[in-house]
Amino acid sequence: MSTPPLAHPVPEPHALPHGWARWLGATNHKDIGTLYLLFSFAMLMVGGVFALALRAELLQPGLQLLNPDLYNQLVTMHGLVMVFGAIMPAFVGFANWMLPLQIGASDMAFARMNNFSFWLLAVAGVALLASFGVTGGAPAAGWTLYAPLSLQMGPGMDMAIFSIHLMGASSIMGAINIIVTLLNMRAPGMTLLKMPMFCWAWLVTAYLLIAVMPVLAGAITMTLTDRHFGTSFFNPAGGGDPVLYQHVFWFFGHPEVYIMILPAFGIVSHVIPAFARKKLFGYLSMVYALAAIAIVSFVVWAHHMFTTGMPVTGQLFFMYATLLVAVPTAVKVFNWVATMWQGSMSFETPMLFAVGFVFVFTVGGLSGVMLALAPLDLQYHDTYFVVAHFHYVLVAGSLFGLFAGYYYWVPKWTGVMTSERRGRWHFWVSIVSLNVTFFPMHFLGLAGMPRRYVDYAAQFTDIHALTSVGAFVFGLAQVYFLFWVLLPALRKRGAPAPQRPWEGAEGLEWEVPSPAPFHTFEQPPKLDATATRVVA
């Protein structure tokens, strides 16, 4: 069932910007969204190569390909590239593309700042990767950059600090842009409690970014002054405390986990109702759950620090506060399942990734509950159990959410339909290889295998070999996505997409033609009572 186009579509201007000038000086939210998405996918591939180099080294015990220092550099850069270069920018790309379309706005609030925030990120990404080329190589202190190890690194650490500062500034500018756009540029009739769930997810995420990115900036600035200006914030020789760095870093780091997953919650909250052909169950409770997760995320940071010797009272507080996060998260999972319950379900590629997201994210959430228990965490801490947990949340969570959103909205972006057969291959190979890679890591951790070690005892060989094979298959699945799914879409090869390609899809983004015109909603649209349709 298709919806007729807008009664008065905005005519395309005769001379749209083109060539390099279009992209370098881009101020249109769709162009900037595309830049973010292409940059993040390139960084995903780079970070994936780092990960596969690590897994190739761990295929057998002993040293095969990497010396210990290079191994530690790749561990560190894999984390930094994936967090700051791949996952976060990808969600910002989705925000740039979809938020104005979903609220009936003509563009983002601050178009030139939008352009600046992207190019700042691009420069930072290049500078981060360039740290491999300086004396001593890239930073090798883990993605958390813990002191005192970070105080002893070469100039590659300074380049990483500089890059993270730029990425943080880019994130703050992007968050300000998103907040102002969502609060001030909604079409008349779209109240806050009629906003789509992806908009709500990003509104909460943007406030989190503004709150915690300055905290990270403070932590790495103190590291910089300890390294070069004689301060002793974290240097025990001068009266500093390395554990202070952990407190400051994780006050940023735990809300950061939700910065990387809340937008995925928003995406899945669109895909599941569309393919269940039902309204989202419990919209209001979903909004409150998003806000509750964000608020509680500020009081759980020290669950990363149970082994630092904190008092039992502190352990109890952070343990119970962490377990409290499970409540609003369970509300969201329950509502997704309730939306699917007795729905008229179909399993096109976006729905496969969305259902896969719910399954594997729940696995990651359950292992998170185990890590939240202080007595158990003393055993699990810094083992492969932790590696398994956060990869289930971030790879199976964030990445699957991104793929669900890509397959769901790409007809609106490009005007062509993705091959269902290729999308299904991408999904099934990805989810099987992902579980082969990361599920056995739980048992490695339970058996006492520490993470970030370049070598290991012979009894861990079989599981390491299995996870390495799974990792390479997962990597090949993303190469398949690049060449057989993404590039054909960019070249507009495929069946033409109708205005509303998914029968159950709701929202203003489906009220414009496919592909979405360069300028949309120059005049605020008139909405129906649900704020999901345009009336003539």
UniProtKB/TrEMBL annotation:
**Official protein name in the record:** Cytochrome c oxidase subunit 1
Q: Which residues form a coiled coil?
A: none
Q: Which NCBIfam families match?
A: CtaD_CoxA
Give TM segment ranges. Answer: 35-54, 74-97, 118-140, 160-185, 197-220, 257-276, 283-304, 316-338, 350-374, 386-407, 427-449, 469-490
Localization, UniProt: Cell membrane; Membrane
Which terms are listed as keywords in the entry? Cell membrane, Copper, Electron transport, Heme, Iron, Membrane, Metal-binding, Respiratory chain, Translocase, Transmembrane, Transmembrane helix, Transport
Q: What is its main location?
A: membrane
Pathway connected to this protein = Energy metabolism; oxidative phosphorylation
Report whether Cell membrane shows up as a keyword of the record: yes
Q: What PROSITE patterns does its record include?
A: COX1, COX1_CUB
One of the record's GO molecular function terms:
heme binding
Q: How does it sit in the membrane?
A: Multi-pass membrane protein
Q: Which residues form the Cytochrome oxidase subunit I profile domain?
A: 14-528
